[in-house]
Design goal:
- The chain is of the alpha+beta class.
- Among the domains are: about 130 residues, Probable tRNA modification gtpase trme, domain 1 (Gyrase A, domain 2, 2-Layer Sandwich), CATH 3.30.1360; about 80 residues, Beta Barrel (Elongation Factor Tu (Ef-tu), domain 3), CATH 2.40.30.110.
- About 25% of the residues lie in helices and about 35% in strands.
- The protein contains 10 helices and 19 strands.
- The strands form 4 sheets. Strands 10-11-12-9-3-13 form a 6-stranded mixed beta sheet, sandwiched between helices. A 6-stranded antiparallel β-barrel has the order 14-17-16-15-18-19. A 5-stranded antiparallel beta sheet has the order 5-6-7-4-8.
- Strand 10 and strand 11 form a beta hairpin.
- Helix 1 crosses helix 7.
- The longest helix is centred in the middle third of the chain and has 12 residues.
- The protein is globular, with a radius of gyration of 20 Å.
- About 45% of the residues are buried.
- The model has no long low-confidence stretch (mean pLDDT about 95).
C-alpha cells in the first residue's frame, strides 16, 4: 500500500516498506526531523495506519470480545489504545479504537492493517460488518511540544485543549474530519482522520506552520518514552507480559480473545521481560546476545542511535529477575546499562497549553 500523500511529498523523500505499507522514512534527515519533533512540532504522514470500520447491531459486543481493553462504553467523543490478541495471547496488533455512533473505527499500527483485518474477519462470530475505510479515509498526525499552537492556527484553538483520548467531529476548510487528542512520543499529540481527496490539502496547510517528520524520527521518539512499536517488539512468539504491554490489557474484563493465555502468563511469572538499555557507539542487531558476568541472559530486541541521548538506545529481553534499572550488561563486547523509562523527559511535560 503506497502512501496516498506521495504526490505531496518532496521528490527526495526516502520511502521504506513497513509490513503492507510503503511509508516515508525520512524527508530532510533523521536528526533534523527528530529535533523538530522534540523541540517544536511536526506533521506526520500516518497513512500507513489502516482504518477499519466495525458496524452492525453487535459491533460493540464484537469489539469487546476482540480487543483486550474494555470498550463497552466507548462513546463517539472518546478513543482508546488497545492490543488485539490471538488465542495464544500473542499480539496481532496494537490499535486505536474510536467510538462511533454505528460501532467503532479501528486504526491499525503502521503496516499491520492486512493482518488485523484477516484476524477480525476470521473471528467474526457475531456477523458484524467489517469495512476497510482506507480507500476513502486516511490519517495525519501532529506531534511536538508546540503542536497545540499549530492546531489553533490550522483548525481551532479550542481543540488543542481537548483531554487526552478525547475526540471531536469537526470541520476544516469545509471538510468533515475526526480530530483526536492522542500522541505517540510523550509530546502533545493530535490526529486528524480526513477524506483522502482532502488529505494533500491538509498536509500542505500544516506544512505552512511546521516541518514534516518521517517514520524513523517518529519511532525513535516512541522508543525514548517506551511507547510500544509492535512490528519491532512482537516477533518470536512472545506474550504481553514479556513485551511489557500489560497496560494495554484489561484482565478484569469478563472475556476477550487471548485472556486465558494472558492470565496464565501472569500467574506463572516465567519467561523473560523487556528492559531498556543504553551505552556505546555501535548499534547491535536484533538477536545479539546479552551477557551478565559472561553468562547469556537474553537478547537484543531492537537498538538505534538516539539523537536525544547521543548514544545507542535499545530494548533487550532478559531473564525476569534481571529486568531492572541500573544493571550492567555486555552486548557484543560493549558495556551497556539498563534504564528506567522514559529514557528522555519530553519537553511537553513542562510546557502548558495556553
Amino acid at each position: 500500500m503506497t502512501t496516498v500523500l506521495a504526490h505531496a511529498h518532496p521528490g527526495d523523500t526516502v520511502y521504506g516498506q513497513v509490513g503492507d505499507a510503503s511509508v516515508p522514512l525520512r524527508f530532510a534527515g533523521l536528526s533534523a526531523e527528530y529535533q523538530v519533533l522534540r523541540d517544536r512540532a511536526a506533521v506526520l504522514d500516518l497513512s500507513g495506519h489502516r482504518l477499519i470500520e466495525i458496524s452492525g447491531p453487535a459491533a460493540v459486543d464484537f469489539a469487546q470480545r476482540l480487543l483486550a481493553r474494555d470498550v463497552e462504553y466507548l462513546t463517539s467523543e472518546r478513543c482508546m489504545m488497545s492490543l488485539v490478541l490471538d488465542d495464544a495471547g500473542q499480539v496481532v496488533d496494537q490499535v486505536l479504537a474510536f467510538g462511533r455512533e454505528n460501532g467503532l473505527l479501528l486504526e491499525s499500527s503502521v503496516g499491520a492493517g492486512t493482518r488485523l483485518i484477516e484476524h477480525l474477519r476470521a473471528n467474526n462470530d457475531e456477523g458484524v460488518e467489517i469495512t476497510d475505510r482506507s480507500g476513502d479515509l486516511t490519517v495525519l498526525g501532529l506531534e511536538g511540544p508546540y503542536a497545540w499552537g499549530v492546531v489553533g492556527r490550522l483548525i481551532d484553538g479550542e481543540l488543542a485543549s481537548l483531554p487526552f483520548e478525547a475526540v471531536s467531529d469537526t470541520v476544516w476548510n469545509d471538510v468533515e474530519i475526526i480530530f483526536a487528542r492522542t500522541g505517540f512520543t510523550g509530546e502533545y499529540g493530535y490526529q486528524m482522520i480526513v477524506p483522502i481527496e482532502s488529505a494533500a490539502d491538509l498536509w500542505r496547510a500544516a506544512l505552512e506552520h511546521v516541518a514534516a517528520a518521517g517514520q524513523e524520527a517518529l519511532e525513535l521518539a516512541m522508543l525514548e518514552v517506551r511507547q510500544p512499536i509492535p512490528r519491532l517488539e512482537t516477533a518470536g512468539g512472545v506474550n504481553v507480559i514479556e513485551i511489557g504491554a500489560n497496560w494495554l490489557v484489561d484482565v478484569t474484563k469478563d472475556e476477550f480473545v487471548g485472556k486465558e493465555a494472558v492470565l496464565a502468563a501472569f500467574e506463572s511469572g516465567q519467561g523473560r521481560r523487556t528492559v531498556g538499555f543504553s551505552g556505546g557507539d555501535t548499534v547491535p542487531e536484533p538477536g545479539a546476545r546479552v551477557l551478565a558476568g559472561g553468562e547469556d541472559v537474553g537478547e537484543v530486541v531492537l537498538a538505534v542511535r538516539s539523537v536525544g541521548l547521543g548514544a545507542t538506545l535499545g530494548l533487550a529481553r532478559v531473564d525476569a529477575e534481571l529486568a531492572a534499572a541500573g544493571l550492567e550488561f555486555t552486548v557484543e563486547g560493549v558495556d551497556v546499562t539498563t534504564l528506567t523509562s522514559p529514557y528522555i523527559v519530553p519537553k511537553s511535560w513542562s510546557i502548558p497549553i495556553i
